[in-house]
Design a protein that fits this description.
Length: 339
């Protein structure tokens, strides 16, 4: 149970996350002005923004160093014209062929025993490397009736023991929607676990509020929250507090990072990230090689470099703080472990 102090502090933040979500920075000029950078030095075409708009929460900008084009957090959110230059054979709009595993709106059945639900069609941020940047969210936003079809699908397949809330970002959905969906799923006896993949506690830590904690605390499921954090500079005191609060009600807290060129492709930052996450009761889980989706090739780190980084981390960290290096391959029943 969350402590009374945590609950009191959190009540004040209960609605704040929605205000932040409704007031994201979407204009690159405004973004650069806030960060003391000259918009004239970086022309960004309308085509880039139309293909995948800029979206970033205002409070997150305080974690970015002003005047620094090379800031590792800025590079994750800043749209670049080079995203349009990558329509090559190796860059696919759907490299994981998720459309083949999408039998009905809102549901992806890619893995044995697990089902993935696209609970929210949007996120608190647009990460420029996102593997779902071309995903058909419009066709995967079920209404109540369509959710009932999803629940029927799960009810009829007794091999499914785990539901994964994904998106978009599932914690960009409102608490009522999350509670309703969870209660429907709890009535299916063969379901054991609820896993939530989310970047929102990192981008908008105010999202970890009293209703969210109560929801996670009250479910009959074993709960796993996998946060997505790529760089130690993403973790300030507000993130540490939010992750620590989550850890009071969630059974297992894990982190997944994407290995990104020029952002976190050095073992010093990755090791520091593991240490900082562990201080908030989060264990490193995956270090993910980039999915080769169209428009992200400039973030790609070679496999051999990924292996080297893991070796360097093993030299300075205990084994439980070294993430597994993985990549996802279309059609495979699980992530591929890179040894
Ligand atoms: S939070 Fe996740 S799904 Fe959303 S844009 Fe970032 S990587 Fe993509």
């Amino acid at each position: 149970m969350p402590s009374p102090n945590i609950k009191l502090r959190d009540v004040a933040a209960a609605e704040k996350w929605q205000q932040i979500l409704a007031d994201l920075v979407t204009d690159p000029k405004e973004l650069l002005q806030i960060l003391d950078l000259d918009p004239g030095q970086l022309p960004i075409s309308e085509r880039v923004l139309k293909a995948f708009p800029l979206k970033v929460p205002r409070p997150f900008l305080s974690r970015i160093e002003k005047g620094n084009w090379q800031d590792p957090l800025l590079k994750q959110i800043l749209p670049l014209n080079r995203e349009l230059l990558q329509d090559t054979d190796s860059c696919d709009p759907d490299p994981l062929q998720e459309a083949e595993f999408n039998p009905m709106p809102g549901l992806l059945h890619k893995y044995q025993g697990r089902i993935l639900l696209t609970v929210a069609p949007h996120c608190a941020v647009h990460c420029r490397y996102c593997f779902r940047r071309h995903f058909d969210y419009r066709g995967n936003t079920p209404d109540r009736r369509a959710w009932e079809n999803v629940i029927d699908y799960i009810r009829q397949d007794e091999t499914i023991s785990e539901v994964i809330f994904s998106g978009g970002d599932p914690l960009a959905a409102g608490d009522r929607q999350l509670i309703w969906l969870t209660r429907q799923l709890e009535a299916i006896p063969h379901l054991q676990r609820l896993r939530i993949h989310t970047r929102t506690p990192i981008m908008i830590p105010q999202r970890v509020n009293a209703p969210l904690l109560d929801w996670l605390d009250s479910t009959r499921f074993k709960t796993i929250v996998v946060v997505h954090c790529n760089h130690p500079a993403e973790i300030d005191q507000s993130v540490t507090d939010s992750l620590s609060m989550l850890a009071t009600v969630v059974d297992t807290m894990l982190n997944q990072s994407v290995l990104l060129k020029g952002i976190n492709d050095n073992s010093k930052d990755l090791s520091r990230l593991s240490e900082m996450l562990f201080s908030s009761n989060v264990l490193p889980y995956y270090l993910h090689l980039l999915d080769p989706v169209q428009g992200v090739a400039h973030f790609d780190v070679e496999l051999s470099r990924g292996r080297q980084l893991i070796r360097e981390m093993q030299e300075v960290l205990p084994g439980y703080l070294v993430p597994k290096l993985v990549r996802e391959e279309a059609g495979k029943a699980s992530k591929t472990l890179i040894l």
